[in-house]
Design a protein that fits this description.
- The chain is 29% helix and 25% strand.
- It is built from four helices and five strands.
- β3 and β4 form a beta hairpin.
- The longest helix has 11 residues.
- The radius of gyration is 13 Å and the shape is globular.
Length: 115
């Protein structure tokens, strides 16, 4: 089965798709610059978070399920950009295959998948 991964670029669509998502997994060993290189600029930045808990967030559709990739409670943009290597994965469904596809797209052998 071919895995279909779509990066959502429209905030209105992303807001609709991600209602009710929660933490499902992590993407480890990945830097902000690797994420930018693989997926472009995040859909949401520091100015989009009402409570400051998320500085950067990408939204994806993967095999019919919405997933989010984001930093969580670093409260520090510079830290997220320069030091963070553990990113949260949010969704409503099992995220293992999504994480595997992200790892393959980023192309780094040092990435790890843990629940």
């Amino acid at each position: 089965m071919d895995n279909v991964l779509e990066i959502i670029k429209d905030k209105e669509e992303a807001n609709y798709l991600t209602v009710g998502t929660s933490l499902k997994d992590y993407l480890n060993g990945v830097t902000y610059s690797q994420l930018i290189e693989a997926f472009g600029q995040p859909l949401y930045g520091p100015d989009d978070s009402g409570d400051g808990k998320v500085n950067f967030e990408w939204v994806f559709m993967h095999n019919g399920n919405a997933f989010t990739l984001y930093d969580w409670k670093t409260y520090d943009v510079d830290y997220s950009i320069n030091e963070l290597t553990r990113w949260n994965i949010g969704g409503k469904a099992y995220a293992g295959y999504f994480v595997e596809d992200l790892m393959n797209l980023i192309g780094s052998k040092k990435l790890t998948h843990e629940v």
